[in-house]
Structure formats: C-alpha cells, structure tokens
Amino acid sequence: MTEARPGTAASAPLWERDAELAAVAEAVDALCAGSASGSLLVFTGEAGIGKTALLAESRRIAETRKCTVWSARGGETITSVPFNVVRQLLQPALVALMPDEAREYFGDWYDIAGPALGIAESGDRQADPQGVCDGLVAAVRRLARREWPLVLLVDDAHWADQESLHWLAAFAERLDDLPVLVVVARRPGDATGESARHLDSIGALAGPMPSLRALTPDATAGLTRATLGAHADVPFCREVWAVTGGNPYETVELLAKVQDSDFEPVEDSASELRALNRAARGRGLVDRLEGLGVDATRFAWAAAILGTQISLELAAELAGMPRDEAERCAALLGAARILTEAGQTTGQVDDGDLEFVHPLIATAVYRSIPDALRTAMHGVAASVVTASGLGAAAASRHLLEVHPDDDPELVEQMREAAREHLAVGAPDAARRCLERALLEPPLPEVHARVLYELGCATLLTSPATTIGHLRQALTLHGLEEELRVDAVCRLSSALIHNDQPEEAVAAVDAEADRLQPGPARMRLQAVHYMWEGVHVAEEDAPGRSRRLAELVKPLTGRDNSERALLILRAFDAMTRGENAEEVVENCDRALVNGRLAPGLGWTDTEWSFELLMMLGISYAFADRLDRAEGLFTEAQRTYEHAGWSGGHLAVAHAFGGYVLRRRGRLVDAEESLREALRLADRVGSGLPMHWSAACMLIDTLLARGHVGAAEEIAERYSFEPPHPSTIVLPDTHSIRGRLLIATGRVEEGVNELETAEKRSAARGGHNTVMAPWAGDLARTLAVSDPRRAAEVAADARTQAERFGTDSAIGEALRCAAALETGRRSVTLLAQAVAYLEASPCAYEHAAARVEYGIASHSVTELTRGLTLARTCGADSLVTRAREALAMHSGRVPRPR
C-alpha cells in the first residue's frame, strides 16, 4: 500500500497504486539511464479513480530525476477543437522557440505541421490529414531529442480531439528508437468512432495493464486517518468507504468536507457522511457553488463554457464582469476547490490561465447551466473569441452549440472555419462546421455552394457521404458552370472509390449532355473515358476504344482537356495491346517539353491523380521505364514535399515499386511495394490501392521465388474473389492464377488464368506483359492438353508482336520455347534472349539466359544468367542456375 506524503486531502494521496508507480519509476529510470528506446504507459479507470493523481505523481517522479515534462489534458466540451491536446503538450517548447528556430528544428515539416500547431500560416490548398500527422510526429521527435530526457503526460485522453489522438497513436508507434516516456490516462468506453480506434491502438502498443481499482476498506481507513488524524475510529472509516465506494476522488472530497466541518471522525458522526458526500459532488457541488454567490457562479459557468486552459480575461468578458471582479471570483472558486491555476494541474504555468481542479467538477458545473442559458453563452463565447482575434476556427466549437436561427452570418462563419480546418489538415472538423451551416439553413443562393464545400471536405474520408452532398448540390441553383463541372467530376470520383463505376459514368454523361462543345464538355468527356477505362465489366470495350480513338485523332494537346484525352487514349491502347509506338507517341503529346503541363501536376485538384498514374503506367508497360520511373519519382517527391502521405503517396510508391520490378530490381521493388502497403494500411482497409499494391508485391515475390511470402500477402490482404470492379494492374486474375499454380492449387490456378483470358477477349485484345496469363496457362496445359497450350502460346506471340515491345515479344518467345524440345527450343530461346537483352527488363532477361543455357548446355550462358539473377535478387532463379551449372561441370552445388 502506497503511503502518502504529508499534506491535505486535496493532495490526493496515492494509496494502493504500488504497481503503477513502480512501472512509472522503472520507465523513468530506463529513460534517464540512456535507453535507446522509449516506453508507453496507459492507465485506465472510471471517473474519480485516481488517474489525474497518478499522472501528477508521475510528473513528480520525472522532475525529481531532472526530466523535462510536458503535459496536456482533454476536455469534455472541447473534443471538437482539432490539435488542441497536441498544442497544449508542445506549448512549453513552442513558446521557447523563435520563429526562425522553429523553422530550423522542424525543417521540411515546418510548413506542413506548423499550421496545425498554430506557429505557421496555412496555405490555400487542403492539407492531407495523414501528412500533417506525419509532420507532427517528425516535429515532436526532433524536439524530443533536444529536450531529453522527456516525459509526455496526457490526461483524459478519452476527451482528446481526434486529430491529436491520430498523432499520439502514430507517435507511440515510433518509440522504438526515441528515448521518450509517454504516459496516458483515460476512461474506458467514453470515446467513439475514429477516436476510439486510435485509443485502442495506443492501448495495444502499451501492452496489458489492469484498470485502476477502487480503494479497499483498509486503504480508505489509512487515507482517512492520514487526513483527519489517527483517532478516526473503525466504524467511521468503514462508513467513509461505504459512502464513497472506495472512489479516491470522492473519498478525498468527502474528507475535505469533514475537515471543513466541526464534527469528530468517530462512530457518532458517521451518520453525517452521506449528506456531506452529496454536497461534495453532483447537485451538492452545484449547491456549494451557488453558495459562493451569483458572481462566482456566473464566472464558474463562463469557465466551464471555455473548457480547459481558461483565459481569465476571456472568462471575465464572457461573464460580463471587470477583471478585478473576475480575479476575486477566481480566488473564491480556488478556495472552494473548484478552480485552480493551470500550473497546479498540468504543471505548465500559462499566465492568468485557470483549470478546474478535477474533470468531474468541470462536468458538473457545465451541466448545471440551464440549457437555454448555456446555448446563449456559447453564442456570446463565439463573439468573444472572434473579437479576441483567435479566428473563425476557434469560435466554431461554440457556434456548433448554438440553435439554428436563419443566420446568414453564422453560415459564413462556419464556412470560413471549415476552410481554416481544411488548411491545417482537419477535414472532420470542417465537416462538422459545414453540416452545422446547413442546419441554419444557408440562403438559397449559397446553399449549393455549402453542399459542394461539404462534399469536397469529405471526399478523402467518406466517399459515400460525399456522394449525397454533391448530388444534392447539383439539384440546386447557385453553382456556376465551372464549379458545377468540378462538382460532377468530384461526384464521379467518389462513386468510383465507392465501387459504383456505372453511376460514375452516368453522372458525367448526364452533365456533358447539358453543355455545348468546349473545354468544360471536353473535361467531362475525358472523365467519362477515364472511368470507363478502369471499369472491368464494361459491355462494349472495343466500341468505347473506337470512339475514344476517333475523338482523340484531331487533338494536338493544346490544353489540359486535350492532354487528358491523349493520356486516356494511350492507356486504353496499352491495356488492349495496340501498337506500343503509338502508345508512347500519345503519352509524349500529353506533355509540355517532356514535363507535366501547368495545372496537370500531381497535387492539382482539377484532374484526379489517377489520370497521371495512367500516364506513368502506359509508359511502364510500353517498355519506356525511364519515363515511367521519372514520373513516379516526381510523384513521390511532390507528395512528400506537400505533406500528402496518405493514399496518394501509397499509390506513387506502389507504381514506382512496380517500375523497379519491371527493371528487374526485385529487392528494391519489394521494399517500395511493402512501403506502399504500409501507407495504404494507415488510410483504411480493403481499398483499391490495397489490391494494386498487393498484386504487384505478390508478382514481385513470385519472381524472387518467395512463394510463401507471396501467399502470406495474399492471405493478409484477401487477394481472392470477388475481384474489384475497377481495373487492377497487373491483371489480378493472371497474378492470382500464377500464385495458385506456384502453391500447388493447379486446377484453381488454371480457372483464374482462363478467366483472365475471357476478360482479355472481351476487351478486344490485351497487353501480354500487363496481363501475363498466356505464358502460365500454356506452360501448365503443356502436358495435359498440348494442342490447347500451343494455341495459347501462338495467340500470345501474335498479340505480343502486335504490341511490338522487346519485353512482350521476348516473353512470348520464352513461352513458345517452353512447349518445344531440341533445336527448336534452343532457337526460340536464343531469339528470346536477343529481344529481352534489348529490353529494360533484367529479370526476364536473366530467366531467358538461364533457360537458354540449360537448353543449349552452355556454361557461358548459365554463368551470365546466374550473374544477372543475382543482380536482380531472383533467389530461386539463382538456385536453378547454380544447379544447372553444377550438373554440367559435374560438381555438387554449394548450399546457399
């Protein structure tokens, strides 16, 4: 049982917290001893169970060891304020840094994380929430190294804002190489949605730790005697425990009331305890507050409206009293153990700021305000906050509590607040503001714009919600043509990401029919062909290709609408296996002096990033890997610089990784593709980007010969039917068929490959490298159905020659050679080697060399193939080449 230091009941001695305090002391000792890694402790428990006291003792232990301690507290009334907790936490460091120092410490992350922390101006572009989170993680890591040894305390994490919890969960994952101690206290079950998910993640990282329990009767008796004196008798102590249930906060408050009274802690007085306990909490606390007078009550109400880190000046203005009167009220409330200086609870003194002594008190005071008055006070608070220069976003949390009243000014305030939230990477906060603006409701002439802005705010986080808002916006007047076209394009993008490709195309077509020929109509036509091009189950793919080719034929690429159509034509021709030279020519015409045109960059919002991915993919599968690699490298660099580290960066890593796979740099490709999946996992699960990255990684692992690892990825990411309704590259049926055959499920694998064959036929042709089903199908059928195998291989060769790239023809020749024997096989393999040597695809070249060496019994060719295979990181091919070499030289191959 933990004994307390001498003091009053209000110091909340920590009884029966030996295990928790030992864990804190051990973690602090490890930190101060120079441990290379940090640690995370999470304390959970019901209200009043002693979490705040435990964090206060953690501070004392850390400060005794000369640690730097930063702390923050969530608040029940301010969960809607984005980045509130992380700003509190970093306040001591931010205050100490001059602007130039902050920029130096944060480096490239300054412009990304600075606006969220309130130390840098936000840009005009919507910030990526994941990028801002990553920027905050990087910024705190840099500050932590400067302030070592550093302890971070977060109290009432269940009331922390969602954005801060996102940061905290990400930061906690990175403690393995950062000597920082993080201690979190929270109630179980009070958070919902994303906040609950982040808290669960934090708890899982911390590992199992029992929830804090109520005090036993013996501990309650010890605490009672430590507070009131050793003469407190057994019946009295037992009644203290019975009245409070062993809740430490209630026990401390009750004993404080006993101290304030005149009765002795003996059995004869025990009957008074229940009445005293009622006065210490709930309605009794409110009665005690009202007993301090009207002015003190009004000031306490104002403080409760403002939340945590309460500015004395703002509270005075909200309460409608001069500063000296506010100071008097604050003193009264301090003596009554209702308010205290901010430094008393967080340990960080912010001149003039106040805090409630305990969250339970803050809740009781806030809920004691009559409903109508509380709403009115929030309205006044919004005006006070705005007048103080804190901005629309700071005022918005109060406006969220005001009843709708046909107020156009409130609508504009909430729209401005939403823009501020989006600029710092808080789209959920923006959504709340715009949803509140709709309730007002907006004037008819701005109603459609508010819906459009709401749709834009939710596009990255909730496609289904976006669909409803944008559809409604398009039924109203108020969107001029350019904005209306943009709304339709965003609606179609949301429908695609919600797996509704038919509806996406229909929405674009309906709007295009309304417009006269011109750039706006051409933009919609481009979007139409883009979504049709990625829809797997379209009914007339050959017809669409013909129409697109006719539309593009006269275009020169004079504006971005024409450039978009040229890209789409190139992508369509590439997927259907049309002439590769024409594919590259259309790609080149979409560029300006070999670069992306202004307004058509990776972070420009008029055109979706999928369009530029199609450009890079078209180059990649047309053997122009140099240009593809340049585009995807630029995409990664651009997204990282802009702080876009969510889905956009994941896709850029995925396709950049697949270019490495095509080059034969299999080890680098695997690394990039695993990074793509890691980034995608942070965005969500089961997304189209997961399918693409998983498919590419499985293909890469199979090329390396790592079948087990490929199978593990397939299982982790549910790489199985049903397949997505949008196109995945490389072809999922082809890669899944290859995987099934590699794992011995040959019949299932053949079924998948034949499905790929049927889909290719429906599209009127296929790129044999993008959809490599033919080679695997022919090899598998070679024994059981040689005639069918020969037909498949012959058709593949015809299709490859139609496309015309060295890699496609070389692979087709390898496939044909696998069905032959003797001189015919050797001749075909020699031709395959010649084509693949001229291609940029080193792995396929290595495989052809090894196969040629085996067929021709050439030690020279085997040696060259072995060298290439080692360079590629193709482990199974290395083994095959070494075994063949050993056989030809009469040596037993060395174990690897």
TrEMBL record:
<dbReference type="Pfam" id="PF13191">
    <property type="entry name" value="AAA_16"/>
</dbReference>
<keyword id="KW-0547">Nucleotide-binding</keyword>
<dbReference type="InterPro" id="IPR011990">
    <property type="entry name" value="TPR-like_helical_dom_sf"/>
</dbReference>
<dbReference type="InterPro" id="IPR027417">
    <property type="entry name" value="P-loop_NTPase"/>
</dbReference>
<protein>
    <submittedName>
        <fullName>AAA family ATPase</fullName>
    </submittedName>
</protein>
<feature type="domain" description="Orc1-like AAA ATPase">
    <location>
        <begin position="15"/>
        <end position="183"/>
    </location>
</feature>
<keyword id="KW-0067">ATP-binding</keyword>
<dbReference type="InterPro" id="IPR041664">
    <property type="entry name" value="AAA_16"/>
</dbReference>
